[in-house]
Design goal:
By secondary structure, the protein is α/β, with parallel strands linked by helices. It contains 18 helices and 16 strands.
């Protein structure tokens, strides 16, 4: 995994990194990354960059001027990427940037798909790159080119002429730069969550995708979960009636992993808890519910109101588990232990989002959908829809598998890889759309929408829950229905 190394804590009131801050950096740390991150709060998380736009999104009624201006869309600089297919190709040539926990395991899935060749690898940790390269040759493919010369060697990988798709699995600080570089070098790019943490950068990725005619995608694996895809097809079949509300979350106790010096390459993930108060990881919950409601495909999200608890969990865990003198004792945590957001759509629907990685609790993405005919709730899975169920008693969700399981899960009933197989289903489908020259299941507009709660929830919490406008990244094209993850099986 790409290593940000130890980055000093910057309180949210800091507007820039001082020379003294930079002097405290350990050897090999990226000063550019520190400057970028330290300026995040002072820049208003990129909201000011939207001034002067011409296209307008619907702002919350009575919203202050700052919120209304955030809803403005800058003028389009290229043609829309809505409905744009990939170029058909028999072999997809892949470059992978970041070979830590995520990238080092996802490479196995790329190698398992016929017609996919891994041609280049990048990570400044040479041992990880070498281990990944051995997997490539063990799969019977030629030895890949490797890029290990520092933080910016990914730029050289992106310049290669024999890569069609760049997969990015690095710390969050680097996602924007890497997606941007890939597109500027003519590559389609898929990025792990979140695709960026600043609103102006989300707009820049939208504009670059349109200008370069390259797809830029948030690789949200939970959209391909078996339950999620079944609920999606049931929703589209009208089983829930008119949709009213949904909920999604990332409630996952990560305290042990965030303080484990060997799990993450440096404390990069924990350090985000010293920078932002809002929902740091909305995509796993927001993506699937957006699909259920056809967000950007007939409806759109208009604004978000967020509330956060005090930040106590990480400090308590540190007190109980970390020795005196550990570098973590210099950190001040401001990220809410639990963030709860309410998102409104243009059709009046409500989506609840939650984020909690700092307190003890079982894993849950909530994954709920309700309408005029009933409701589904996950963790544990249960369903109640009329006329199938009566007497206020939950029904068996498994009874809907035969009729409503997605064709991808019927074709790949026991997929390899982690997260119950959803990782493989996602990569298989992405590579299939590239090989057959199809429109991808989701695009840069979805990526920007699903990630926008990161900066906007932070601003809403700081404003005591005041609604923040969510921009219309499609610039009005959300009103047109179009296919998404609920795809038809291609004829070949």
């Amino acid at each position: 995994m790409h290593d940000e190394h130890a980055i000093p804590n910057f309180d949210e009131s800091d507007e820039s990194a001082t020379p003294d801050d930079l002097a405290d950096l350990p050897d090999g740390a990226s000063r550019r990354a520190v400057l970028r991150t330290a300026g995040l709060a002072g820049a208003g998380l990129g909201l000011g960059a939207l001034a002067g736009g011409t296209a307008h999104a619907e702002a919350p009624q009575g919203a202050p001027a700052a919120v209304a201006s955030a809803a403005e869309a800058p003028p389009r600089k290229g043609k829309t990427m809505v409905g744009v297919p990939f170029e058909r190709r028999s072999t997809v040539r892949v470059g992978i940037v970041g070979l830590g926990n995520r990238g080092g395991s996802m490479i196995d899935l790329f190698l398992a798909i016929p017609g996919v060749r891994v041609v280049a690898l990048c990570d400044p940790v040479k041992d990880k790159t070498a281990a990944a390269a051995k997997k490539v040759t063990a799969a019977g493919q030629p030895a890949p080119a490797t890029y290990t010369k520092g933080d910016h060697d990914f730029e050289n990988l992106c310049k290669r002429g024999d890569i069609d798709f760049v997969y990015v699995a690095t710390p969050w600080d680097w996602h924007f730069d890497m997606a941007r570089t890939a597109m500027l070098n003519g590559k389609h790019v898929g990025v792990e969550c979140p695709i960026s943490l600043q609103l102006d950068q989300l707009w820049e990725l939208v504009d670059l995708s349109e200008r370069t005619r390259r797809h830029c995608m948030q690789l949200e694996n939970c959209c391909y979960g078996k339950n999620e895809m079944r609920v999606l097809r049931m929703a589209h079949a009208g089983k829930f009636g008119d949709l009213l509300h949904g909920a999604g979350a990332y409630n996952h106790d990560l305290r042990g992993l965030m303080f484990d010096p060997d799990y993450y390459e440096g404390p990069w993930r924990r350090l985000w808890h010293t920078r932002l108060r809002g929902d740091l990881y909305p995509n796993h919950g927001f993506g699937p519910v957006s699909n259920y409601m056809d967000i950007n495909r007939g409806d759109r999200v208009t604004h978000i109101s967020s509330f956060g608890t005090p930040a106590l969990g990480l400090a308590e865990y540190r007190k109980a588990n970390m020795p005196a003198g550990d570098p973590s004792w210099k950190e001040t945590y401001i990220e809410s232990d639990r963030t709860i957001s309410l998102v409104q759509t243009a059709k009046g629907r409500v989506i609840r989002l939650e984020h909690d990685v700092s307190t003890p609790h079982p894993y849950s993405r909530i994954n709920s959908l309700g309408g005029t005919k009933g409701v589904f709730e996950d963790y544990p899975e249960r369903i109640y829809i009329e006329p199938d169920h009566t007497n206020d008693e939950w029904g068996d969700f498994g009874k809907y598998a035969a009729e409503f399981d997605h064709w991808l899960w019927k074709e790949h009933s026991n997929p390899p890889g982690g997260h119950g197989g959803m990782d493989y289903i996602m990569i298989f489908r992405l590579m299939q759309t590239m090989q057959l020259g199809l429109v991808p299941d989701f695009d840069v507009y979805d990526a920007a929408t699903w990630t926008s709660p990161v900066p906007l929830s932070h601003l809403s919490i700081k404003a005591k829950g005041a609604p923040q406008a969510i921009p219309d990244f499609t610039r009005g094209l959300w009103k047109k229905a179009r296919p998404g993850v609920d795809s038809q099986k291609p004829k070949a």
